[in-house]
Amino acid sequence: MPGCGGASSRSSPCSAEDLPPDAAPSRGPIRGAFAQLRDTFMDLRGYPQTLLFLIAYLFYNDGIQTVIASSSVYGAEELGMAQSQILTTFLVVQFVAFGGALLFGRAAARYGASQVVLAGIVLWALVVTAAFFLPGHSMLAFLGLGVGIGVVMGGTQALSRSLFSQLVPRGRESEYFSLYQAMERGTSWLGTLTFGLVHQWTHSYRWSIVAIMIFFVVGGVLLARVRFREGILAAGNELPQVV
Predict the structure, then answer these.
(1) Which of 111, 141, 154, 206 has its Cα between 20 and 30 A from that of 128?
(2) Which residues contact 95 (CB under 8 A, 6 or more apart)?
C-alpha cells in the first residue's frame, strides 16, 4: 500500500496528524461522555432560568432522596419500630404515591406545575417537622408519616421533570436530560452526609432528620426565583396556559 509520503510501500507510517478527520481515533466512551456533559454545562450558562431551576432541583431533590433513604433507619433506631412495621409502611407509601402523583397532576393542570411543586416542597418540610415530633413505638403515627411521604413523593418528582423539559432548548432534550441525571446522582450524597454528621454531633436521629430541612428551604427559595415564562420562551418552547 502507498505510504503517507508517496507511492512507495517503504514510506514512513502515517501519524495521527496525517490521518483524515474521519480516520482519526475517536475518544473513548467515558471521555466522550464527560466531554459531552462539559459542553452541555457550558451551553447551559446561556439559559440562566434553566440553570437556576436545575440548582434548585438539586437541593430539594437531595432532601427528598435523603428522607426516603433514611426513613427506615429513623424508624428502627429512633422510633423503635420493628422491621415488619417498617416494611408495611413502605408498601403503604408505594400505593399512596400513585394517588399522590395523580392528585399533583390535576392540581398542576389547574394552578401550574411550578406552584404545585413549590407547594410540594412546603409539604415535604412539614413532613420532616412532623417526623421530628413523632412519638416512639407508635405504628399509627409512623404509618401516618408514611402516608404524608407518599402523597408528596411521586408528584413532586414527576412535575419537576415536566418543568425541566419545558426549560430545555428544543432539539437538545437528550443531552440536557443526561446532564439532569448526572447532576442528580452527583450531589445525592450531600443530604446523607448531613444526616450522618448531625447524628454524629448530636447522637440523635431526630436532629438529623430535621437538619434535612435546609435542603427544602434552599431549594424552595431558589425555585421561587425562577422566571419560568422567560425561561421557556428563551428555550424556544411553547408557553403553556399555566406554568
Answers:
(1) 111
(2) 150
